[in-house]
Amino acid sequence: MYVKNVIEKVKSNYPSQKEFHQAVEEVLISLSPVIDKNKKYQENAILERLVIPDREIHFRVTWVDDKGNVQVNRAYRIEFNSAIGPYKGGLRFHPSVHEGIIKFLGFEQVFKNSLTTLAMGGGKGGSDFNPKGKSDGEVMRFCQAFMNELYRHIGAHTDVPAGDIGVGGREIGYLFGQYRKLTNRFDGVLTGKGLSWGGSLVRPEATGYGCVYFAEEMLKERGESLEGKVCTVSGSGNVAIYTVEKLYHLGAKPVTVSDSKGMIYDEGGIDVALLKELKELKRASLEEYIKIKPQAKYTKISDYKEGSNAVWSIPCFAAFPSATENELNAIDAKTLLQNGCKCVSEGANMPSTLEATDLFLKAKICYGPGKAANAGGVAVSGLEMAQNASKHSWDFEVVDKHLHNIMENIFANSSQTAKEFGDPTNLVLGANIAGFRKVADAMIDQGIL
Ligand code: NDP
Ligand code: 2IT
């Protein structure tokens, strides 16, 4: 009843924030067993407190495009919870960004960051600015204008933003430069920085590598592995690229990638070097891939079967949704399961709809929900903060080993928690409860705030 009431209140208080409802519903329902067992959570109104961010900053970003026109964008930084560490989470620049999207991402981040075992609270930000088709000069002026407001709200011990969709190394550079200019301080106030100015090795690879390490852990428990297996990946950005790369390291064969216009199916295996050249260097459409590799097949989004994502129609052993929220629905989940898919490890945040998630859980395949499977990115951000604080830089192997250990621990903790609550294969329940307990107990320890 308590859980249901909180969900209903969120829905009635914020009727237009569908993605936020979805994230709250998924988490809160899976928390029911721990809430029922421990009255302290209800007595301390923990759920009511968790679903309302500590604060939301909405601001305007005004900048001038290459033609001399004044442009105006909406922007957000939502500081959700800092019970276990400074607010931490990415910035998303995409035209679809609105308050509900940033709230769902910030809410998820609270539990994800808790699972990493590092001292990081949860937050998220972004803007409806579309970096696509903009010149470097325009992106720089936008980032500088964005930071002209954001700088007063962030700090190495307060709130540490990073990248997400549309925000990579280039944007972090412009944001960091403007922060330094405005404050006259060289602080580890953003993560995902360049290597020569405070960045960490393995941060670019971390989310994708971590997501594959997580899949490996799930499979290991069942005596399976990725070696020699066909895998499908969606997206072709930061997370997707390094998922593909790590799959090759483990002897698997990734055969798909996608972007906002269409998908590539390369039966012989995706060409990682070509993918990096097209997406990291040229910022081109995936359609270019078949100009170099005509044996691959390109399908435009307009040719996808209605109501489904063509990536998930390709038979695979393991699937890695790594583009965006709700990119895998019930139809896609059924297709994957019918084609014999045994493992889904989520690189993106909330890529599966609630119905798709239920189908995976019922089928008892290895299903790694985003907040566990993609926590490697923010975990290495946490390691970047540790390196900045100690003014040291660690070797690639050292950071990668930490990342691997953290992903092993997240799996072990989520799996053990799922077993404790009598639903051993349900990592949604396991990850949510494990992430929740640490934050909720810290909130109780620190009093009514
Ligand atoms: P990027 O901007 O690097 O790449 C995003 C990719 O997804 C691009 O290929 C993009 O296509 C595609 N995409 C974005 N929106 C849509 C859409 N509405 N429909 C179809 N395709 C879309 O972002 P990331 O790789 O960093 O992020 C991908 C996902 O991973 C997001 O859900 C993000 O929140 C999550 N994540 C990211 C982490 C990180 O460290 N970067 C950490 C944890 C999770 P196109 O090239 O055409 O734009
Ligand atoms: O969703 C995420 O975890 C991220 N976009 C990474 C956040 C971070 O602070 O590195």
Largest sheet: 5 strands, mixed
Which runs of at least 5 residues are low in confidence (pLDDT < 50)? Answer: none
For the largest sheet, list the strands in their spatial order.
1-2-4-3-5
CATH class of the domain at 206-373: Alpha Beta
Radius of gyration: 21 Å
Our count of helices gives 17
Computed structural class: alpha/beta
Helix fraction by DSSP (H/I, runs of at least 4): 40-55%
Q: How many E-type strands?
A: 13
Bound molecules: NADPH dihydro-nicotinamide-adenine-dinucleotide phosphate, (2Z)-2-iminopentanedioic acid
Overall outline: globular
Q: Can you walk me through this structure?
A:
It is a single chain. Helix 9 runs antiparallel to helix 10. The strands form 3 sheets. Strands 1-2-4-3-5 form a 5-stranded mixed β-sheet, with helices on both faces. It has a 5-stranded parallel β-sheet with strand order 7-6-11-12-13, sandwiched between helices. The protein has 17 helices and 13 strands. The chain has helices at residues 2-13, 18-37, 39-43, 46-50, 99-115, 136-150, 169-183, 203-221, 238-249, 272-281, 289-292, 330-338, 354-363, 370-373, 376-390, 396-420, 427-445, and strands spanning 55-64, 70-81, 87-93, 122-127, 159-162, 230-233, 253-254, 256-258, 262-265, 297-300, 318-320, 343-345, 366-368. Among the domains are: 53-186, Rossmann fold (3-Layer(aba) Sandwich), CATH 3.40.50; 206-373, 3-Layer(aba) Sandwich (Rossmann fold), CATH 3.40.50. The longest helix has 25 residues, at 396-420. By secondary structure, the chain is an alpha/beta fold. It binds NADPH dihydro-nicotinamide-adenine-dinucleotide phosphate and (2Z)-2-iminopentanedioic acid.
